[in-house]
């Protein structure tokens, strides 16, 4: 069942499943996606005894559109507000793609709220966009149809059987007023706020990357660079054959990696549930 919190400029939609007394795990999707991107992962985490929260990004899903800003720092603020609303954590935060930048920024700004990070295909460092790349980003994020074509292209492994329904939901959501503009603002964000952030993050971290992720010239090198720059212990798991969405392409392998990590940093029954 959807729930909502008010944040400056709008509201954020989220859903809670699993054991109310279990350790808190928050799953944040990437730009241009819905919280349903975790539909094959969240039930397994809940079944393992965790209190699982899936959230929509501002401007996406059931969250409001029309915010004044959609920068990576705004996403970190939204996650902080959500965690405080849920009892203050500490939580393990799972961030994919764009949220792979908001999650470490949150951990650096609000260390008391975070006990671990799992970053899936993360844009965890500042990015550079030359004029050609900016034009391409604007084009891809100009219409739901073009975004849908690009979204599909990021899958290099098998698409789940329910992928057509999920993609249709993504495109339908993007047709709502203000949502393409929100995604476009995120896509054009070069994330300067992430400069120097990773060394400040001292909680344990897991980086999950598809070996064929087309968003990075060398996915393994990117994952290992992020791990090396983090200020705490970090593990890299490469999902063979996956593109940018290993949690959809290879949900069993991704879930196994997440559960192994969770049992280390937030074991069920350790008395630190939110």
Automatic annotation (TrEMBL):
Record keywords, A-Z: Hydrolase
Pfam families, alphabetized: Abhydrolase_6 (PF12697)
A molecular function GO annotation: hydrolase activity
Domain AB hydrolase-1: 25-256
InterPro entries named among the record's database cross-references: AB_hydrolase_1, AB_hydrolase_fold, AB_hydrolase_sf, Epox_hydrolase-like
Name used for this protein in its record: Alpha/beta hydrolase
Organism for this UniProt entry: Actinomadura keratinilytica
């Amino acid at each position: 069942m959807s729930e909502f919190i008010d944040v400056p400029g709008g509201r954020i939609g989220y859903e809670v499943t699993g054991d109310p007394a279990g350790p808190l795990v928050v799953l944040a999707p990437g730009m241009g996606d819905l919280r349903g991107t975790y539909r094959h992962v969240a039930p397994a985490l809940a079944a393992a005894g965790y209190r699982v929260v899936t959230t929509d990004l501002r401007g996406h899903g059931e969250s409001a559109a029309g915010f004044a800003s959609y920068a990576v720092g705004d996403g970190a603020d939204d996650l902080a507000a959500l965690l405080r609303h849920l009892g203050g954590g500490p939580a393990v935060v799972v961030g994919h793609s764009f949220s792979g930048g908001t999650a470490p920024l949150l951990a650096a700004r609000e260390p008391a709220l975070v006990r671990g990070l799992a970053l899936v295909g993360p844009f965890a460092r500042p990015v550079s966009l030359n004029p050609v790349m900016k034009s391409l980003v604007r084009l891809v994020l100009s219409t739901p149809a073009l975004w849908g074509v690009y979204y599909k292209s990021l899958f290099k492994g098998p698409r789940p059987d329910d992928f057509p329904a999920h993609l249709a939901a993504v495109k339908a959501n993007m047709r709502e007023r203000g949502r393409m503009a929100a995604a476009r603002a995120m896509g054009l964000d070069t994330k300067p706020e992430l400069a120097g952030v990773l060394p400040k993050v001292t909680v344990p971290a897991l980086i999950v990357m598809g070996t064929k992720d087309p968003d990075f010239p060398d996915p393994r090198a990117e994952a290992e660079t992020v791990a090396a720059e983090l200020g705490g212990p970090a593990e890299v798991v490469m999902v063979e054959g996956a593109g940018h969405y290993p949690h959809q392409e290879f949900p069993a392998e991704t879930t196994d990696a997440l559960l192994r990590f969770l049992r280390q940093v937030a074991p069920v029954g350790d008395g630190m549930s939110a």
